[in-house]
Known about the structure:
Elements: H1 8-17, H2 22-29, H3 33-45, E1 49-52, E2 62-65, H4 67-71, H5 73-87, H6 93-117
Antiparallel strand pairs: 1-2
Helix pairs in contact: 2-3
Amino acid sequence: MMLCLGIGNFCGSYGLKKVFRKKKLADRAGLTGPTAHTALCKMEAKGLIEKEVPEGGNSRPIIKLSPFGRSLRDKLEPLAVHTNDTAVNGLSENEVSQLRVFLLKMNRNLTADGDVASGRSS
Length: 122
């Protein structure tokens, strides 16, 4: 079972055939908006993604993998699988499932705390 790789998810299965808006991508990767923005700017500077403004007057860009970004999948995916396998080595399927639940809860707690601290939530 693979653990979430955050923004790396975009470079994997999400980015191959789909395009996303920054908010949806951040939500799927479990990142805050500012963190996703920083990561996406770095990825764009390295030529991994492309941003396009769709026709029809919508000014929010869509994000997709560039051809170069797509070409890295065969190199990066095995590394991600190895990293995940190493991280959970010696854990049972049940323990990995529990760990995932705990990490997701911790992420939600930290996100909520950040929202409160920034005034985005009451």
